[in-house]
Amino acid sequence: MATRSTDAYLPHEGQEAVGVCTGCKAISWGKRWFADGDEAVTLPAGSTPHKVVCPACQRMQDNNPAGIVTFSGDYLLQHEELILNAVKNIEAKSRAKNPLSRIMEIGQEGNVLTIRTTDEKLAERLGREIYKSHSGKLGFQWSEDENFVRVSWTR
Known about the structure:
Layout: E1 15-21, E2 27-30, E3 32-34, E4 50-52, H1 55-62, E5 67-72, H2 74-78, H3 80-97, E6 103-109, E7 112-117, H4 120-134, E8 137-142, E9 149-154
Parallel strand pairs: 1-4, 5-9
Antiparallel strand pairs: 1-2, 2-3, 5-7, 6-7, 8-9
Helix pairs in contact: 3-4
């Protein structure tokens, strides 16, 4: 059977037991993670969840992002609030589909905004959505050895 992901933070096999993340309360069952309170989750009768740490919380504890997004330029300073609101909305939509897809940290120095994510797909999406809304220049740099992407947008 082929492995779907090479991400060291994701278990290679589904876990039959139900787990609840001690950090974010996400629920693990089979090969999926569900947000705490997700109505789509119907746990097996009589199951007692065991405590686990989800891959996103583990990445945060290890300070090991899967993506780093850099927004820069004078345009950023002029539209900072608009861009930050868009970033937060993109994360919320992504997290609704995948509770492991999160922003770890947002930092700013001058006209450079840096966002670290727990999921490389979220990093890519942040760059693409800001580019679609605000044009500019967008670049991607993927790591060949691990699940990591560096995204840069400037205008």
